[in-house]
Design brief:
Tetratricopeptide TPR_2; TPR-like_helical_dom_sf; TPR_rpt; TPR repeat
Length: 448
């Protein structure tokens, strides 16, 4: 095949380039003047405008040249030199061509080949402002911010998804993940960058500000994720409240799930650790309860100290129990336990001393607990000090005093809510059932 078709294509391309160049030169020439037809007014400046039609003519002419080149088996160096010279003129005027905004959508409309570089022609970027010279800095800010964002998303998501997602967790994870992926896609993928540029073009935002805007979005994403990360303790508190409500309603499975979510969101939430310890104790998972109480004790929660000391006593770890109780009672002004909690601390210390066979000290602490519950008019857990005091008096050979305390133990015992008192009541009934004794009341009011 001859190159006659190619020559015709080159001629069309040359004509389109000349018209393009003429229009651009006239637009930029300050001396390009035209007088009015009637010559009644002075000549005024006329600035021809480059049109999308002219640009499309150039681009399609270049397409024809490329197609002719592909079909031509032989061509002359003269033709190739002419094409190269025309391409140079086209590239030199890339800035004027790029100023026509419709070119941003032409690639989607006409779907040119990837090799057709003239359809995506971009002017050589020349920094003309201070902020243009810092584009490298803003790009670094964008990448760094996205890296931090991805780390935060991973950390936050893993916390919310512990034990399976719930509605709040799924919403938090999906929202932050979508925002991060959109921002990352716009910065790191070719398709995302093109969509980002088209959006900014439609918004008529100057190109010299694009890097700054991208960095700004990335920084906003980091700030938002940091805000979410810092709000996790508040969210954890809400989960803990839901768990406590479930616990009070007897829905212990859901309570455990909400407590676990709260702790995952805020491992330092000692109140939730204490509440989870209560739940595990109800479930007779004493080892797990002990672990949760030990964490809560680090924040000096009086009830946690009391409950942990009781578990130590049941495990026959009397020195550890005594150490906890003595420190708590010595720090009463700082801890400010309620009257009910202080009574329990005194009762447990008396129990420890009983098991250690320090009977006088045991008796003193138990009597102090009884005096406190009377002065504070407590109505719960008032049988335990009497049950323990009866055992102390038996150990000291005070049988009459022991029998009196056994009677009081049975009178106020609540075996449905205290496993400790159940065993003590059995002992009391055995003591009071001895031949020389009779029990006046066969029915007892059950209280804790």
């Amino acid at each position: 095949m001859t190159d006659s078709r190619l020559q015709q294509a080159i001629k069309r391309y040359q004509t389109a380039i000349e018209q393009l160049k003429t229009t651009i030169d006239a637009t930029t020439d300050p001396n390009h003047l035209v007088a009015d037809a009637d010559q009644t007014t002075p000549p005024e400046e006329v600035k021809p405008q480059l049109t999308p039609t002219q640009i499309l003519e150039v681009l399609t002419a270049r397409d024809e040249v490329q197609a002719a080149l592909a079909d031509t088996t032989q061509t002359s160096g003269e033709n190739l030199a002419a094409i190269a010279e025309l391409d140079k003129v086209l590239k030199d005027n890339a800035e004027a061509i790029a100023s026509i905004r419709e070119t941003a959508d032409w690639q989607n409309s006409f779907n040119p080949a990837k090799e057709a570089w003239w359809w995506s022609l971009q002017p050589e970027k020349k920094p003309h402002k201070f902020w243009d010279q810092l584009d490298w800095f803003w790009s670094t800010v964008s990448i760094s911010s996205l890296t931090i964002s991805l780390g935060l998303v991973g950390d936050i998501s893993s916390r919310f998804l512990t034990g399976g997602p719930d509605t709040l967790g799924a919403l938090a994870v999906s929202t932050q993940s979508i925002l991060t992926l959109l921002t990352a896609g716009g910065a790191l993928t070719l398709a995302g960058q093109e969509a980002y540029k088209r959006t900014l073009n439609r918004l008529k935002i100057p190109e010299q500000f694009w890097h700054e805007i991208s960095a700004g979005f990335s920084l906003l994403l980091v700030v938002g994720l940091f805000g979410l990360r810092l709000s996790l303790p508040q969210i954890a508190t809400q989960y803990s409240k839901w768990g406590f409500k479930n616990y009070q309603e007897g829905d212990w499975g859901t309570a455990e799930e909400n407590y676990q979510r709260a702790i995952k969101l805020n491992p330092d939430d000692t109140l939730t650790h204490f509440r989870l310890g209560l739940l595990y104790e109800e479930l007779q998972k004493l080892d797990l309860a002990r672990t949760e109480y030990q964490i809560a004790v680090q924040d000096n929660i009086p009830d946690a100290i009391n409950n942990l000391s009781r578990l130590y006593i049941l495990n026959k770890n009397y020195p550890a129990a005594a150490n906890l109780l003595l420190k708590a009672l010595a720090s009463e002004q700082k801890l400010k336990p309620s009257a009910e909690t202080k009574q329990a601390l005194l009762k447990n210390l008396g129990w420890v001393r009983l098991m250690q066979k320090h009977y006088p000290d045991a008796e003193a602490k138990l009597l102090e607990a009884i005096d406190l519950q009377q002065s504070a008019k407590l109505t719960k857990s008032i049988a335990a000090p009497h049950c323990l005091l009866a055992q102390v008096m038996e150990a000291q050979k005070d049988k009459k005093g022991a029998l009196k305390e056994w009677e009081t133990c049975i009178q106020y015992a609540d075996i449905t809510s205290s496993t400790d008192e159940d065993g003590w009541v059995i002992n009391a009934q055995q003591r009071l059932a001895e031949p020389e004794l009779t029990i006046q009341n066969s029915k007892f009011k059950i209280q804790k």
